[in-house]
Fold each of these.
Amino acid sequence: MSDIILGIESSCDDTSAAVIRDGYLLSNVIASQEVHRSFGGVVPELASRAHEQNIVPVVSEALSRAGIKPSELTAIAFTRGPGLLGSLLVGTSFAKAMGLALDIPIVMVNHLQGHILANFIRQEGKAVEEPAFPYLCLLVSGGNSQIVKVVSPLEFEILGQTIDDAVGEAFDKCSKMMGLGYPGGPIIDKLAKQGDPYKFKFAKPHIPGLDYSFSGIKTSLLYFVRDRMAEDPQFMENNKEDICASFQKALIDILMDKLIKAARQTGIKDVTIGGGVSANSGLRERLVAEGRKRGWRTFLPEFKFTTDNAAMIAIAGYYHYLAGERTPLDVAPVSRIADF
């Protein structure tokens, strides 16, 4: 008998639902919220209200595209955290209500586990090579920057993490500082392709071990722009492509230096990336290049699985379900999770 899992993701500003049968993706529907763009960032109250409006039609559409009736579902996987509490509450409450109505179990999922396991989403007609355990995952997003040793689908060890800001936040702050818009990551990436990554230099932190820090490089950019603009008011407009390219290169250098160190220390040769920043073209190209140079097997999630989506929650929930895990109906969402 097949195991059919409905996944629900509502950790931030994307409402998403996906259906997986025995590990194979049948549908993945995402409703994005454009309302936040004019504010230059996600407004939590507006996000939770939009989730309330979107979740019923999104789940209905996911089931319809998959050709699955609600009565055929085996379990419902949902994001418990980390994320915006109001947004998480919508997804959690919906999963509880639907699970109770259908008399099927619900399975809570750590949002970060979903990003890490995105490489295991299988699709009919697509032959996808999967990393072998244990492997390393560079987990990078607006809220997280970590190097994770993935021992199994349910066992993770954090080898290094940011001690202050996340790399995704650095991208967004750079874009905001330069008046380029939101979300900053894709904008910086696009402009960087047209610029010279060696034109300008930015201060890089010297943090021991495998931990990261991105607060200093943001300050470096702030002072750099301030001083150059004082000399030439048109400096930023005339050099924005080179600034973006140089800043992006500096961030990627910081990420890769520690990842190379982690691979050397552990002897692990299978390396992946995950999280929203894993969509960055410069980072993806650099990982592949370093892999060729160092004999790694590198794995890149499809672009559609890099941002927040329910397919990754469904595959993570699938593994938890197979392990016999079930979540009680009195579970509450959490905005922060200390570990995996």
Amino acid sequence: MRIISIIPARSGSKRVKNKNIKKLMGLPLLAHTVIHSLNSKLISRTIVSTDSKKYANIAQNYGAEVPFLRPDNISGDRSTDLECFKHCLSFLKKNENYVPDIIVHLRITYPIREKNIIDNCIKLFLKKKNYHSLRTISKSEDPIEKMWYKKKDNSIFNPITKNTQNHSVSDQSLPQSYHQNNCVDLLRVKNTILKNKIAGTKILGYEMQHNFDIDYPEDLKKIKQYLAKNKN
């Protein structure tokens, strides 16, 4: 199996300025994920997709491949992972006649990964050959039936519970909800990217106890506090 990791690393984040190269434990966030990928025994290539020469230099300094710079038109706030992966695979096919079997999507915003978590996900995915993709998940604090969307007129609705009253029952009577925690995603290329899909229809969940994803400035502060208390 040809198994590669793709690490998207666009510049210009807004919620946390220059988030992908913020320092944590003396290293840029980008470096942590590159190191995690290189430490995998099952990933054969670690590729960083970035629009920034500065980010590219950092990635290469820590051992990643940066065979191209991602075009600006697929590097904006609303650009998708699918666009990123299609561009990467197109480049590899055209320039190397290389097509991977599995993509390991590693996000820079998850700088703390449990030992062997990447390879454990890959091993499980290789056994479950009928699945198109895998996503690591963590338990949600609230059931999905008790979450709401808000319209411009301030009316609220939940598409899950529109025909029931589940939003008013006890949490214990509802099934446990999970959210993807952005630690590791796996994609079987023939079932996803080559069919213009990002996950396919059969998605395998890999439950984790922690969630260290960074989306807001306070998330980075929480991780630093966690590391101070858990130095091992």
Amino acid sequence: MTLHNDTALVLFSGGQDSTVCLAWALERFARVETVGFDYGQRHVIELDVRPRLRSALAAQKPDWQARLGDDHVIKLDALAAISDTALTRETTIEIAESGLPTTFVPGRNLIFFCFVGALAYRRGARHIVAGMCETDYSGYPDCRDDTVKAMQVALTLGLDKRVTLHTPLMWIDKADTFAMAEEIGGKPLLDLVIEDSHSCYLGDRSKRHDWGYGCGTCPACRLRAQGFAKFMSERKTT
């Protein structure tokens, strides 16, 4: 695999997808920095697991230790203030009249990309890695490949500097994401993703399942559970 002598910024929430994306980036770029967002999310516990995940990832391979750079946490309180969603309010997680789940935070990923683009400009980074996925997502329009491609064009034009957005999970499902973790880092990385990453929308880490911690009933937990079950099933047949 060719190592890019460049810096990449990874949108790193502390979830399954972003953890695998961070490992993916550490395999490919000479320097990797991480960016998290504190936007008043209901599952704020994801911010608590991030430092532990970073340290554990760096400890898995000497090369990763050498390549992992600074972490940045950006406060976006205004996003929660203007949002009325189940990720920023104590409201029911359900399908809204729009046809989208109430966990959809309008404009969230667009805002994330703008802030990361500005940070990338300051840090001299030309690559941004994010865990958006169009295969088994909840219908969020800002996770679609077309949206990401449009943002890449907008950032490149707006910053007058070439910016490349990488979405290594765009066309794979959760089962494949577990498989990618194992392919990149073997059992240690797979175990780390299961044990320490956080996906539950309710921020519940009191219940341990074979796929990790979570309430077990919210859409994020169900998606992760189904993906892990499929991953284990496919593993047995190969």
